[in-house]
């Protein structure tokens, strides 16, 4: 659902109207019967005409991988990097980088800033630039539509 939060934040004011999702247990096929689907692609259409795609796999063996890109008629911006630093080792075994292994390592500054913002809001009783209940509902609506879409194997409207 964090990916859906991010897509909504990157597309301010837009409302999701349709979702088409595919998912399967590709890493752990033995978990399929228990409802655990480890690989998914979710396409979201918004009321402003934009289209977003979220991809997820719960088994990136090379490290904690989270990236994004936004592109349109004015250009493109990309963010995220699985590499922990730009240092790269080139040797007889190939090329390698140290990678992020956990989200708590990768996002320590973001989590610290989030906690500091919460403490400040609690102290002053004022919340600035905070997500709203509507933001949470929109992300949940996408998630529920994605589950329904996987089950029905077709696009579904977001309600």
Automatic annotation (TrEMBL):
GO molecular function: oxidoreductase activity
Domain GFO/IDH/MocA-like oxidoreductase: 1-77
Source taxon at top rank: Bacteria
InterPro entries the UniProt entry points to: GFO_IDH_MocA-like_dom
Keywords: Oxidoreductase
Family annotation (SUPFAM superfamilies): Glyceraldehyde-3-phosphate dehydrogenase-like, C-terminal domain
Pfam families documented for this protein: GFO_IDH_MocA_C3
Family indicated by similarity: Belongs to the Gfo/Idh/MocA family.
Name of the protein in its database record: Gfo/Idh/MocA family oxidoreductase
Gene source species: Agrobacterium salinitolerans
